[in-house]
Amino acid sequence: MFLTDTEIKLRISNGDLVIDPRFAEAEDVGPYYIELRLGTEFSMLRDSPASFGSFDPADPESQLALDSLYERTSVRLGQSVVLKAHRHVLATTLQFIRMPYDLCGLIYQRSSWARVGLTVGVSHVDPGYQGRLVIQLNNIGDIPIVLYPGVRIIHLCLAKLSSPAHRTYQSKYSPSTGPSPLGSLLSLDSDFVKIRELVERRSEELEPLSGEQPELAELLHAASEAQRSEKGEKLEQFALRLFQNIKGLRVIKKNARLQAEELDLLISNDISVGFWRFAGSPIVVECKNWVQRVGAREIGVVCEKLNSIGPDAKTAIILAPNGISGTPERDALLKIREKRQRGQYIIVLDREALVEVAASGRTSEMIERKYDELLLI
Fold first, then answer.
1. Which distant-in-sequence residues (6+ apart) come within 8 Å of 80 by Cβ?
2. Distance CA 119, CA 4 (A)
3. Which of 204, 219, 235 is the endpoint of a domain?
């Protein structure tokens, strides 16, 4: 049985169900659903898939070949992407979702989009899910469709379970408006502009001014070029400046002692939007400016540090220019997946990510992207 609008609003108001971002005047709760909006991340099929042949789920190389046909792209609010006729795209929702353990969700498309040939793959949301939803959009019509991040895209219906689920999320992965094909898209989406302004404002509040970017780039360069004996300290200096630039985070202590262990940075988290509201506090930051990749043993040590702090410490951010070892089935990446399933989030910023944030200063945005990737391991 689906929850009614009254029940949905009650769950949201008491924090049991998290849908973020929202704003006070949002008209996004229907009689038995909540409307979710199109996000900024897309995975689109490249233009020349004809040479692929066929997909064989029993062949690991076939999976790699299939992945190579897709291109990941990020589109800022206010921009758009074009979904060609008879093509599909994987996209994310704009909102973060956190499901309680006694609810599941069912995803349905909005009828106004179906009128122009856009369909949404029917899917479900497991109890305990946290993160943005991944949805499949299919253009079954004969004309391209322009998609704008921020528009209403799906209905999420919430169903009450007979009791809280024991096995929870473990995955990798309105009235009729008449026959007009435009239905109630952008022209009638009264709060599209409001939601865009809200998200952009929150993003700006979290991120530093552009004038601080050169300092980050210089500190990262110094960490890259430092002698072996100084590499750790130089990367810690970069990390300190990086997190001092995010409003809502406060560095409690650098090189803090925790029993027999030392924490490179211990950070208090007072941010209540996006990923950060799930991250807990304090957050541990570790710097691994090593020649080799970070392995499973080091991931385990970081998790033990979180355990030593207490149950409110759920997140560790590791700066590791050379990345981590393994796959979702072995070594460090397997350890990270296992810890995520137990409510601990180990977010790794490798060299590519560090160079990007040093150039742009958008550290919070990068960490949220890495959190999204973590949910798909």
1. 146, 147, 148, 149
2. 25
3. 204
Helix (H, G, I), strand (E, B) or coil at 177: coil
Round to whole Å and give the CA distance between 132 and 99. 11
- What are the Cα distances from residue 288, in Å, to 195, 260, 323, 334? 38, 18, 9, 19
Question: Distance between CA atoms of 144 and 93, rounded to whole angstroms?
Answer: 21
Question: Taken in order 357, 361, 367, 369, is the CA torsion positive or negative?
Answer: negative
pLDDT digits (tens, 9 = 90+) for 231-258: 999 999 999 999 988 888 999 988 876 6
Residue 191 sits in the same domain as residue 231: no
pTM for the model: 0.60
**Confidence at 173, pLDDT banded by 50, 70, 90:** very low
> Greater confidence, 56 or 211?
56
**Does 115 lie in the same domain as 104?**
yes
Whether the per-residue pLDDT at 177 is higher than 50: the answer is no
> 109 and 200, same structural domain?
yes
Closest CA to 28 of 187, 190, 167, 177: 190
The CATH number of whichever domain residue 325 belongs to comes to 3.40.1350.10
For residue 178, what pLDDT is reported?
A: 44
Query: Which of 38-42, 157-161, 180-184 is the most confident on average?
Result: 157-161
Cα gap 257→114, rounded to integer Å: 58
Q: What total of structural domains would you count in the chain?
A: 2
Q: Specify the pLDDT at position 20.
A: 80
141 and 258 housed in the same domain: no
- Where b means 16+ CB within 10 Å and e means fewer, 148-161 reads bbbbbbbbbbbeee
Structural domain of 183: 5-204
d(CA 279, CA 377): 18
